[in-house]
Amino acid sequence: MQHIPGDAAPTEDITMSRIQLRNRGRILDAALEVFSKHGFRGATLDQIADEAGLSKPNILYYFEGKEDIHVTLLDQLMDRWLAPLREVDPEGDPLEELMRYVHRKLEMSQEFPRESRLFANEILQGAPRIGPHLKRDLHPLVERTAALIQRWIDAGALAPVDPRHLIFSIWATTQHYADFEAQVGVLMDSTEVHSGARAHLDALFRRMLTP
Questions:
Q1: Which of 27, 43, 138, 170 has the smallest CB count inside 10 Å?
Q2: How many domains does the chain have?
Q3: CA dist., res. 123 & res. 197, Å (int)
C-alpha cells in the first residue's frame, strides 16, 4: 500500500489511538477510585493524576478538568445502572422478572461498588451533574416499570404493593452492600456477605410479592 506524503503512517495512527484509549481508561479508572473515596468536592486533579500515574498536564490533555471527568464517569454509569431495569420483560413471569432484577442489582453492588458510591455521592450532593439524566432517562423508565408492575398487580400476578416504593426498596437493600461496604465488612465475614444477602433478599421480596 502506497504511503502518501504528509499523511500519518497507518501503524502510527493505530499506535497513537491505542495509547490515547489506554491513557483515557487509566484516567477514568483512577478518577473512579478517587471520586468514590472522596466525593466530587473532596477529589482533586492532583489525586487523580497520582492514582493514574500520569502528570496533571497529561490529564488535562484528555479532559477539560475535574468536572469533565466526573460527568464522563456519570454518563457511563447511568447506561450500566439502568440496563437491568430496562431488561425487565413485560412478557415474562412477573415474580421471576422482579427477582431477577433484585439479584442483578445485588450482583452489581458486588461487581461495581465504586460506581455505586460515585452515584450515591452525587445524589447526596443534590445531583448537580446527573440531574438531567434523572429527568431524561431514569424518570420515564421508572414510570414505565411502575405501570408494568401495577398491571401485574391488577392481573393478580403480584401481591398489592406501591410500585415506586418497591423499586426504591430494591435499590436501598441491594446498593447498601456497596455504599456501606466498610460497615458491612466490620459486622460480617466478607465471604458470607453476598451469598447471605442473596438468600435474605430473595426470601424478603418473594414473601412480599407472592399473591
A1: 138
A2: 2
A3: 24
